[in-house]
Design a protein that fits this description.
Elements: H1 3-8, E1 11-14, E2 20-24, H2 27-51, H3 59-68
Antiparallel strand pairs: 1-2
């Protein structure tokens, strides 16, 4: 589902003056929104790392180095 479709599912809590004070969404919609936000963060991180211009390290080598440093991977 697109972000626009997800947002259309939102319901608002309104105060006595008619001002929107909170948003209510179904749990499934909330989980989809979280997934979309996490995907966006991941894409931004990949973009940032590509601009860093450092050579990539293969996962098996990185994993060996992390394990040697006592990290649980």
């Amino acid at each position: 589902m697109s972000v626009a479709e997800l947002v259309k599912q939102a319901r608002f809590v309104i105060d006595a003056n008619g001002d929107k004070k909170a948003v209510v969404v179904d749990w499934a919609i909330w989980e989809e929104l979280l997934t979309l936000l996490e995907d966006l963060e991941d894409a931004e991180e990949v973009h940032r790392l590509r601009e860093f211009k450092e050579p990539a390290v293969e996962w098996n080598i990185a994993k060996q180095e992390l394990c040697a440093a006592g990290k649980d991977v």
